[in-house]
Amino acid sequence: MIRPKLSLRRPLAVLAAALIGLTGAAAVATPAAAHHTTITATVVCDQLSGERVITWTVANSERRTAATVKKVTAEPSTPVQVLVPGADPVDLQGVAIPRNGSVQAVQRVPGDTASAKLIVEGRWDNRRERTNEGTINLAADGACTPAPKCVDASEAKYSHTFDGPKGTATVKLEGDLPLCGEEKQYFTLVSYFAPRPQFATPQYVYGEPDSDFLGAGQNEIELNVGVPDCHTQVDLIWGGVDEVIDPLVEDGPRYGSKKLGEKGAPGNRSSGPQGWYNGGSKNCTTPASTFASACDGSVTVSLSNDGSISKYPVEFEVRGENGWSKTVTVAPGKADNETVVPAENAGKIEVLVDGEVIENGTYSWERPEDCPLPTVTTDADCETFGLTASNPEGGMPVKVEFTYGDKTETRTVAPGSSEKVTFPAGDEEAALVVLPELGLELEVVYAPEGCGGGGGGEEPPGLPVTGAAAGGIAAGAIALLALGAVLFVMARRRRIHFTA
């Protein structure tokens, strides 16, 4: 067991101060007659031992004759000794007092002694004898107690430093005395996730609290904790880790005056700055969104609240065009994939948290690559040239422009329906079918069989195709040509020539 070293500086300082401030002097009750002794006294408190130290002064009244102390009676009955420089003390009894002189003797009595008396029987050279006494009141200054060698933990004072944003603190035992015996006083530093930069609940402990004690020779400690990269609270509290509250909830327990630097006990037993901090620049959540366009023009918005600092529910607001809005709350560590923005509102979508658009939280509908494309079929004879556009189920309405010669017809084809346009046969060799919203074009050659003039009864010419993947498109078109139908494929400004 390691015992702390005790410093004598403080007790010695106290003793020195007490010696300077001497207290109490009493005179002898002696008649004003020849041949007598006069006895006076002063007293100090020896805080090393807890005893009162009385200095008795015994004076000889005679100018011509020395006196010898024949007998000494002390109350309390403890030795009364004359201090001799460079030698051992000698008892007052038997000491000679020079003529017209005095001698000083020291008596130690218990610290709680209320009064003391010294009775001296003196004898002079002319053989005269007289007994005199002196008294001193010791109760006026209160009891004399030993200077403490340690401080009780219940009475100890401390000082501290605190830096909440950095998660650091120190605590120090004040004064020169250690805590008594095996006593220990614990202090703990703890940090929290918090929902706001000001005090708010619930709060959850972040990482591991740091706790240490003063005592057993340890007079100063340093505490360090991690601080989350979001709204936080950091507390320096009186006590060990068993005092930590996790979580801090509405109407739940609080640290109160256990926080160092508080006005009440025990926190006020440590001097220093307030031992608590609230702050942080961002939410302790990880809101995110992803988007998936559907062929019918709607968009599914997936909302998530999953990450290393996601400790609180997140309330998302999903906004679309034309005033469409929906609020969705996602618990920490969870996701929601059920928010669908209708096609008429999906032109521009925003995802907001606390009134602000989150990172990567804007989107507009985009046609998926796997959506089925509209088809075009022809019905041509020697007098008319008919074109029919069909839009598959599950898609969006499609705008189709039919042009033959100097005439153009525009139709909007609903999903699951068809629109037909018929032109009078003319001298033009081809019609142009355009889907402007999809960036697609199809050129269809007018050449019905059995009609007089060019092309009648002839084999259909080759299928020139412009743009990428021409071979694959042409191959598919040949199969459709036998049925008199042509299938559009996804391409940008792509033309396909057919003979009808």
TrEMBL record:
The chain crosses the membrane at residues 468-491. It comes from the Bacteria. Residues 256-279 are annotated as: Disordered. Residues 1-29 form the signal peptide. Keywords: Membrane, Signal, Transmembrane, Transmembrane helix. This is Cell wall anchor protein. It comes from Verrucosispora sioxanthis. The lineage of its organism: Bacteria, Bacillati, Actinomycetota, Actinomycetes, Micromonosporales.
